[in-house]
Amino acid sequence: MIKILFALLAVLGSSIIGLAQTTSPTQQPPPAPHTNLKVGDKAPDFNLPSTIVGADNRRMRYKLSDFKGKKNVVLAFYVFAFTGG
What is the pTM of this model? Predict the structure, then answer.
């Protein structure tokens, strides 16, 4: 009986979280920035926060130019990460 109650509560909780994360049908995503990049062009320099926290409790930042001539860089976008979809 307790297992069934726990399972129902888990399903109810995940349903509520899923409903809370959905967006309104009238809400539009922001427009993509306009660029003049074409296939084969060099990527513009940008920086992103790291998941690593430094000694001063601040997130480290990495620039694309930090890796020039050192490593191969792969930038992967996970479109539905953390969206519940």
Answer: 0.43
